[in-house]
Specification:
With about 500 residues, this protein is an alpha/beta fold. The protein has 2 domains: about 200 residues, CinA-like (Maf protein, Alpha-Beta Complex); about 190 residues, HUPs (Rossmann fold). The chain is about 35% helix and about 20% strand. It is built from 17 helices and 18 strands. The strands form 4 sheets. The chain has an 8-stranded mixed sheet with strand order 8-7-13-10-9-14-15-18, sandwiched between helices. Helix 1 packs across helix 2, helix 1 packs across helix 5 and helix 11 packs across helix 13. The protein is elongated.
Length: about 500
């Protein structure tokens, strides 16, 4: 006899993952006799700690909760910021360091030998009264999983999407609980921990566009891969990391900058890619309204270029990233299929003049109507968004099968697009890169990758200096060789 409704299963049922409520998550932590620490929340109320107070048994978990709203009070506690801003990663780091040091100082290990200390902090700006700036913030936790163990740390940057300050505060409170719960109970699988941040939240409520893990429990975590997961999961549209491999916040590095972007697969990065970059950069910094010292270069890889076998291959991604980083470049991973979306994204951080460097093939594709059928205004809407901004396209030539060099002067677009193309060309929105290396026009990433995989001679000369040595030393693109060209061989047989 079945006594419980939950025991009943109907043919065709699908397994549904049980997601604990926010109250259940907070209560589980509260009832743990060892988890003990502090909360410091600035700018959006004490919404996270409120959930722990409401859950009950909070005295077992909360040693202190505070909110230093006044700037002078905040500076007196955590120190002044060089740039005078308060909603920054630097402020969050100072808060976490200060608070966990206080925990260690004020709570004796002799008295609490089994306690797992933690400090949760956030510094947040919610939507302004005029509803012009939707708000953003930094959230983080530093914590132990064993007494006397070195501390682990998780920090992230969020952007609010809701248009009400109260809703934003409540959203932050839920995210905070999810982070603390995930830090203690999901630390063994950081990828899942990322997804669990959105428990009881929707992606149209909040965006996570930067995350970093550190500490003994995350020694094997590559934060570049975590960035990739943010884009893959739809938690943000784009992430960036610098030449040192560390995640960086796009809003910080792109703010009011002259931006030059290069899109490609970079599998691997070749001499033609670097020649395109160098020549377009030289042209870009000579433009009016472009300040060389205020120029930022981005190598962008779209998510569609990271796919192998229908899924994103992480090893392949890291191989490309490694090469670009060694060349001193900043890498951006995005969900943007169309170029106009890239420009829109950059424009949200900067109104200064921008540049796009691309090959002839890419430009011809831009003038293909099929990519814009989902837009109510079609290709005209896309081009309005693309070229309305202070933007210029730097065009790298290509060689056709007959050996002719194709430039902006003789490229062929669809007859219906001919006049539209002439309009942008006439208005100087498309300019040719003229100081190019003609021998580079015969270099194609796909061909180079085949040569690497087949151990053919001569591929080293097709790559930028130092790249070949790195590929050999670290055996880069071995996965690509195994997957891509194994299949080719099977088809031929």
């Amino acid at each position: 006899m079945i006594n419980k409704l939950t025991d009943i299963k109907i043919s065709g049922d699908r397994e549904i993952e049980h997601v604990p409520s926010i109250k259940d998550k907070a209560l589980r932590i509260n009832l743990n006799q060892n988890i003990y620490g502090t909360f410091a929340e600035i700018g959006a109320g004490q919404e996270t700690v409120r959930n722990f107070f409401r859950a009950g048994a909070s005295s077992r978990t909360i040693a202190k909760a505070m909110s230093a709203y006044d700037k002078d009070f905040s500076d007196a506690i955590y120190g002044e910021e060089v740039d005078g801003r308060y909603v920054t990663e630097s402020r969050l780091k100072k808060m976490l360091t200060h608070e966990i040091n206080l925990v260690e100082e004020r709570l004796s290990r002799e008295k609490h030998p089994d306690k797992l200390f933690f400090s949760y902090a956030n510094t947040v700006a919610t939507i302004d009264f005029a509803k012009q700036n939707k708000g953003h913030g930094w959230v983080g936790i530093v914590y132990q999983l064993e007494p006397n163990e070195a501390y682990n740390e998780i920090t992230l940057h969020i952007r609010f999407k809701e248009n009400d300050a109260k809703l934003q505060q409540e959203t932050l409170g839920i995210l905070g609980v999810n982070l603390i719960y995930g830090a203690f109970y999901k630390y063994n699988d950081p990828k899942k921990l990322l997804r669990y941040l959105y428990d009881h939240l929707d992606k149209d409520q909040i965006e996570v566009d930067n995350i970093n893990f550190s500490g003994p429990r995350f020694a094997e975590v590559d934060n570049r891969l975590m960035s990739l997961q943010l884009v893959k999961n739809g938690m943000t549209d784009a992430v960036m990391f610098g030449p040192d491999g560390k995640n960086i916040l796009p809003a910080t590095v792109l703010y009011k900058k002259n931006i030059l972007a290069l899109r490609g697969s970079f599998r691997p990065v070749t001499k033609v890619n670097m020649d395109m970059y160098e020549e377009s950069y030289n042209m870009f910094i000579k433009e009016n309204k472009v300040d060389k010292d205020n120029t930022f270069v981005v190598f962008e890889i779209t998510l569609s270029n990271l796919k192998a076998e229908g899924e994103i291959d992480e090893r392949d991604f890291l191989d490309r990233a490694e090469l670009l980083c060694k060349l001193g470049q900043t890498v951006m991973i995005s969900n943007f299929q169309e170029y106009f979306k890239v420009v829109e994204y950059f424009s949200s951080f900067s109104k200064a003049r921008m540049g796009l460097a691309m090959g002839v093939n890419n430009l011809i594709e831009i003038f293909d109507e099929k990519y814009y059928r989902h837009l109510s205004g079609g290709i005209l809407e896309a081009f309005g968004k693309l070229f309305y901004r202070d933007l210029k396209v730097y065009l790298y030539p290509m060689k056709d099968p007959m050996g002719n060099i194709i430039t902006s002067e003789n490229l062929k677009v669809h007859p219906r697009m001919k006049e539209l193309y002439k309009f942008f060309k006439f208005n100087g929105k498309v300019v040719d890169i003229k100081d190019y290396e003609e021998k580079n026009l015969d270099i194609f990433s796909r061909k180079v990758l085949k040569m690497i995989c087949r151990s053919e001679d001569g591929w080293e000369d097709l790559l930028p200096k130092g790249s070949a040595e790195l590929i050999k030393k670290d055996k880069l693109f071995s996965f690509a060789c195994e997957v891509d060209f194994k299949k080719e061989a099977e088809k031929m047989n």
